Amino acid sequence: MSYDVVLIHPPAIYDFRKQPLFPGPLGPSVEKIQFIKVPIGMVCIANYLDSHGIKVIVDNIADRMVASNDFDVERHVKNLEAKIYAIDLHWHHHAQGALEMARLCKKLHPDSLVVLGGLTATYFHEEIIQKYDFIDAVIRGEGEKALLEFAREFERTGKVPQTANITCRTDTGDICVKPLMPASTDLDEF
Q1: 178 close to 138: Cβ distance less than 8 angstroms
Q2: Which residues pair with 27 in a beta bridge?
Q3: Positive or negative, the Cα torsion across 39, 162, 57, 112?
Q4: Residue 89's closest CA among 80, 101, 81, 79?
Q5: Above 50 in pLDDT, residue 31?
Q6: Whole-number pLDDT of residue 24
Q7: Cα(158)–Cα(179) distance, rounded to whole angstroms?
Q8: Collapsing DSSP states into helix, strand and coil, what is residue 115?
């Protein structure tokens, strides 16, 4: 099945099934230290996109990996077809997992866009775009309207959109930071 947008929740550590982990004092307090719960904002984004005609799915890769040692992430992602792969980097604990998922999505789907969003991605937006060429854009701040506008513009032009809330590279390789939309004052629309 093909989607306009696949929203991916990554594990905190992508290769946790292969490498020994030493979680320290935080380990016993969290679910297998992979933070497998999808942020509520991601569910809101999916609902908002769907209500505006965007074919979208939320894929909790973290939960799939924790639930089954046999889950083949690469095969799964290869079979996911989308124009945009949007990966949440909400909590800093997910940095390694989010970056590895982004790298995998770009490797398997080089003609699709790979974007990050979330609190940590917003804070480190310029550094992410500067350092990781497999990430096409970072959506900063509130993602519902920004991702909808981004997806519609990509559908129209076929290029990385320079819409509100976006940090991306220009054709010349410079970093482009677009202004943020006004913050929402009423959550009922989402």
Answers
A1: no
A2: none
A3: negative
A4: 101
A5: no
A6: 54
A7: 22
A8: strand
